[in-house]
């Protein structure tokens, strides 16, 4: 696969006669299409502001991109923080053909885009159903070791649908799409994940499939249930019997070993964030934690992140960590706990006092005496609306209480 990626990029960068055409992106709106599993098409919209800046749109989310590089007649578009990038040949100023690439995972997804198009999905029929409300959802129902629950939260205006699916470990972020007759179509693209959801909808049920890039597909079913709630995020991960604290020693980007026993953390409230730079929910959480830390670090709180990276080398892993810290302006340390894999079972081996690592992110709350007081699994980001506000209120009240002890 690595050889295939190299060959594809070489073909894109160099034309047959290797002339430098100096083509750049035309200012305006583009409709992008990724070809995912089963040859389904995942659309998203981006707007080129200048040859070196553009915005990607997912419902209320606007991702500002300023890492755009031109080589001969090809363009490289790299979204903030995440490793994945778009590389495409500029056929003309308003037509692109290429790939979405995640090199560390050896994934390549066909990509194309056309200018002057701003409809995310093409609607063939007037909407006959309204999905607004709460949906009790099960993904991979009946499939051993793969079934999991979710809460669909949607708002529909005309044929336009926005919302997300919440799970016990996080959310699928900003989804945007349409109702085409009785068919729901939703998508999102953020540089880390390329998600497509399709479903046939009745007044009280939906049945469909979830696609992640061209490597994953799973079924889901849902039914209307306005009172449905997921299991509590504070009960899923816990310390094994015999433990009341955690220990670890991992390096920072200067290759200095950092431990909870260091003076920096002594007699302070500490939040240990289990995360990865590749993880969108972790990005949402890191943005919130970074802001909170800057406003409250003088009160006696410390945050330390443990990064579990799928980058194949230590150097690439730290490059991703440095990029995240620089992009968001994170002042607290991010340590490299693992590279070459983000496998949760291996992550749990690094923290053997936990019953498991169920989700990235997971936050461990430690009081001033070093005892674990709470473990919160997952993160409900801004796309979840009221749930995000509820999380922030609970977080600030709990941490505030620890600081007063």
Arrangement of strands in the largest sheet: 4-3-2-1-9-8-7-6-5
Low-confidence stretches: 13-18
What's the mean pLDDT score? 94
Q: Let me know the CATH homologous superfamily of the largest domain.
A: Glutaredoxin
**What count of domains describes the coordinates?**
3
Tell me the β content.
35-45%
Largest sheet: 9 strands, antiparallel
Tell me the helix content: 10-25%
CATH architecture of the largest domain: 3-Layer(aba) Sandwich
The tally of beta strands, per DSSP, is: 25
CATH T-level topology of the largest domain: Glutaredoxin
Could you give the distance between the termini?
Answer: 55 Å
User: How many separate helices?
Assistant: 5
Molecular shape:
globular
Encode the helix/strand succession as letters.
HEEEEEEEEEEEEEEEEEEEEEHEHEHEEH
Secondary structural class: alpha+beta
Give the topology, please.
Layout: H1 2-13, E1 28-35, E2 41-50, E3 53-58, E4 61-65, E5 67-71, E6 74-78, E7 85-92, E8 95-102, E9 107-115, E10 133-139, E11 148-157, E12 160-167, E13 170-171, E14 175-180, E15 183-189, E16 194-201, E17 205-212, E18 216-224, E19 249-251, E20 257-259, E21 269-275, H2 280-296, E22 301-308, H3 314-328, E23 334-338, H4 344-350, E24 362-366, E25 372-377, H5 386-404
Parallel strand pairs: 21-22, 22-23
Antiparallel strand pairs: 1-2, 1-9, 2-3, 3-4, 5-6, 6-7, 7-8, 8-9, 10-11, 10-18, 11-12, 12-13, 12-14, 14-15, 15-16, 16-17, 17-18, 19-20, 21-24, 24-25
Task: Provide a quick synopsis of the model.
The chain is of the alpha+beta class and 405 residues long. It contains five helices and 25 strands.
């Amino acid at each position: 696969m690595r050889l295939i990626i190299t060959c594809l990029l070489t073909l894109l960068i160099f034309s047959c006669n290797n002339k430098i055409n100096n083509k750049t992106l035309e200012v305006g709106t583009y409709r992008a299409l990724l070809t995912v599993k089963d040859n389904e098409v995942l659309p998203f919209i981006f707007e080129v502001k200048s040859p070196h800046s553009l915005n990607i749109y997912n419902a209320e989310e606007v991702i500002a991109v300023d890492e755009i590089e031109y080589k001969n007649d090809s363009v490289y578009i790299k979204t903030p923080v995440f490793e994945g990038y778009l590389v495409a040949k500029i056929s003309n100023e308003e037509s692109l053909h290429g790939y979405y690439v995640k090199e560390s995972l050896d994934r390549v997804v066909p990509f194309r885009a056309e200018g002057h198009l701003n409809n995310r999905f093409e609607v063939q029929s007037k909407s006959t159903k309204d999905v607004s409300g709460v949906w009790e959802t099960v993904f991979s129902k009946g499939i051993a070791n793969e079934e999991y629950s979710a809460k669909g939260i949607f708002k529909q205006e005309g044929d336009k649908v926005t919302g997300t699916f919440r799970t016990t470990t996080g959310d699928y972020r900003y989804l945007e799409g349409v109702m085409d007759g009785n068919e729901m179509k939703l998508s999102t693209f953020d540089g880390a994940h390329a998600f497509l959801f399709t479903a046939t909808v009745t007044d009280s049920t939906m049945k469909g499939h979830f696609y992640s890039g061209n490597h994953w597909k799973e079924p889901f079913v849902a039914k209307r249930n306005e009172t449905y709630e997921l299991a509590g995020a504070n009960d899923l991960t816990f310390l094994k019997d015999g433990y009341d604290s955690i220990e670890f020693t991992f390096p920072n980007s200067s290759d200095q070993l950092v431990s909870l026993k260091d003076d920096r953390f002594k007699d302070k409230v500490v939040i240990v964030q289990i995360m990865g730079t590749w993880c969108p929910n972790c990005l949402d959480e890191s943005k919130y934690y970074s802001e909170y830390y800057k406003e409250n670090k003088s009160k006696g709180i410390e945050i330390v992140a443990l990064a579990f990276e799928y980058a194949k080398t230590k150097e690439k892993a730290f490059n991703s960590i440095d990029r995240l810290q620089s992009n968001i302006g994170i002042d607290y340390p991010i340590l490299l706990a693992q590279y070459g894999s983000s496998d949760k079972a291996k992550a749990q081996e690094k923290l053997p006092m936990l019953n498991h690592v169920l989700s990235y992110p997971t936050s461990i709350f430690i009081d001033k005496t070093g005892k674990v007081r709470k473990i919160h699994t997952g993160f409900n980001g801004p796309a979840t609306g009221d749930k995000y506000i509820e999380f922030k209120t609970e977080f600030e009240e709990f941490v505030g209480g620890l600081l007063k002890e």
